[in-house]
Task: inverse folding
C-alpha cells in the first residue's frame, strides 16, 4: 500500500477572506484543535459561505480543508449500517430523550498522539 504522505500546495484565497482565515487559525490554535506541525502531510484550505448572515449583516463563512487526495488513500472500515426501523424500535418506551448541537462537531474527538502525523 502507498504510504507516501499527501502533500498538496495551498490554494490561493482572496484577500477579502484573509482576516477571517487568520482569525479562524488563531482560534483553532488557542482552543487546542490544531497545533504547529512539521508533518510531511499538507492539505489545502479554503473558505466557503454558510447559510445566513452574521451580526454585522455579512455572509457567514467557514474554513474547510480539502482532504480528497488523503481520503483516496484512507482504508475504510466495513460494518453494517443499522436499520432505521430497528433504531426507532429500540427507542420505544423511553421516557427521556436528548438532542445535542455541538459547535464544529468534527473537532470533538481528539486524535491519539501516535496518529497525529
Result:
Amino acid at each position: 500500500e502507498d504510504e507516501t504522505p499527501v502533500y498538496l500546495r495551498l490554494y490561493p484565497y482572496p484577500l477579502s477572506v484573509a482576516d477571517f482565515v487568520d482569525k479562524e487559525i488563531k482560534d483553532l490554535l488557542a482552543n487546542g484543535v490544531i497545533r504547529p506541525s512539521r508533518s510531511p502531510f499538507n492539505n489545502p484550505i479554503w473558505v466557503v459561505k454558510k447559510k445566513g448572515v452574521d451580526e454585522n449583516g455579512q455572509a457567514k463563512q467557514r474554513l474547510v480543508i480539502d482532504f480528497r487526495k488523503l481520503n483516496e488513500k484512507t482504508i475504510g472500515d466495513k460494518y453494517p449500517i443499522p436499520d432505521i426501523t430497528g433504531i426507532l424500535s429500540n427507542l420505544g418506551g423511553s421516557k427521556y430523550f436528548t438532542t445535542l448541537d455541538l459547535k464544529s462537531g468534527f473537532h470533538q474527538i481528539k486524535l491519539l498522539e501516535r496518529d497525529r502525523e
